[in-house]
Design goal:
Blueprint (H helix, E strand, L loop, with lengths): L1 H19 L3 H9 L1 H14 L5 H15 L18 H21 L6 H9 L15 H11 L7
Helix pairs in contact: 2-3, 2-4, 3-5, 4-5, 4-7, 5-6
């Protein structure tokens, strides 16, 4: 009887730990499935420097959740050179996040990174946002950040 209770207790602890340790990859698996998560992972490895991945990959995953775009627009990238594929969207998003992080650091880390990124990634009042939804982007990315394995530390 004791061994069974111990095993159930350990299973419960393991489950809690796994929930607490959700990664950006796991968040994408939950949203889009393993195939897309593998494309997400490739986009991260190709476009985000290794020393920045743990910090920036959750932001890219949070953008996926916040944008919630349909097929070919999953990450909200509207650039005409972006192919309407999951991998292309994830890659451009990851590259944008890395480049903006580098600019933000070089500029002296003025303000919060997510706020700075939001002003560039989906500015309020943009021509391609006629209904004004961009005003919710920063709040939404912050909301999803902890669910995607990150923290709003920047």
């Amino acid at each position: 009887m004791y061994a069974r209770a111990y095993n159930i207790g350990m299973l419960f602890v393991t489950l809690l730990l796994s929930l607490a340790q959700t990664t950006a990859y796991d968040a994408i698996v939950s949203k889009d499935g393993v195939v897309c998560a593998n494309q997400f992972q490739d986009a991260i490895e190709v476009n985000i420097r290794s020393e920045c991945r743990a910090m920036l990959a959750p932001i890219v995953a949070s953008i996926r959740y916040a944008e919630n775009g349909g097929k070919g627009r999953e990450y909200g990238i509207l650039h005409p050179r972006v192919k309407p594929t999951y991998r292309s969207q994830a890659g451009w998003c990851a590259a944008t996040v890395q480049k903006h992080y580098d600019r933000w650091v070089k500029g002296g880390r003025v303000g919060e990174f997510i706020v700075s990124l939001g002003a560039r990634y989906c500015p309020i009042g943009a021509d391609n946002d006629p209904t004004g939804l961009n005003k919710h982007w920063i709040k939404n990315v912050r909301f999803y950040l902890t669910r995607c394995g990150g923290r709003d530390i920047l």
